[in-house]
């Protein structure tokens, strides 16, 4: 899809502004992985869209901490589908552009995604606020577990306990370590904040953007759709993440 002249000009302005700044926060949601073939609609991996699962429950219920405690086989049935989706995906140009900026800027990435694509792209300062499918552990003894185990549910080779991925299931608390780290980074402050491919409905996603707006720091939203942040940020770019970030990075690196 070709970009309008107005959008192209905005992306150049953003790239020039980014080039002059140092410390940058990128907040990303499912939309950044759309160009990697991962759907953006509801269901932690994009397999469902307001439809009941074949087990007769909403995907949010099947992927909840309560369901995992009572019926880990059901939760793992859908986790396995999501893992399969994510294993087929590779980082796209947006992930790669953000990772490449580590060489010229002090970049922090706060992502809602559990697909591991930022890590695969090489981003070094990464807060995976909802965890990652790339790690598993035993719920009984805490030992790290084999991520290639295809059993449903997988069990710990050491104690036989039920294994789970290191992700936040629906209804569970966010990891305290990740939240603490996020607020330490926010207390340090950022020169510029990007929010990409997320509706920002969670307070811990919207707050860093709103903090930056209040401080007068430049803010950028990259999302084909409008959100409640669109009229508050310095720039709203109605484009795909890969196309937009490629253009921004190309402008930014011209004098680096």
From TrEMBL:
- Enzyme Commission number(s) from the entry: 2.3.1.286
Q: Does the keyword Aminoacyl-tRNA synthetase apply?
A: no
Pfam families in UniProt: SIR2 (PF02146)
What InterPro entries does the entry give?
DHS-like_NAD/FAD-binding_dom, NAD-dep_sirtuin_deacylases, Sirtuin, Sirtuin_cat_small_dom_sf, Ssirtuin_cat_dom
Tell me where the transmembrane regions lie: none
Enumerate the spans annotated as Deacetylase sirtuin-type domain: 1-255
User: Which residues hold Zn(2+)?
Assistant: 138, 141, 156, 159
This chain's protein is named: protein acetyllysine N-acetyltransferase
Organism this protein belongs to = Dentiradicibacter hellwigii
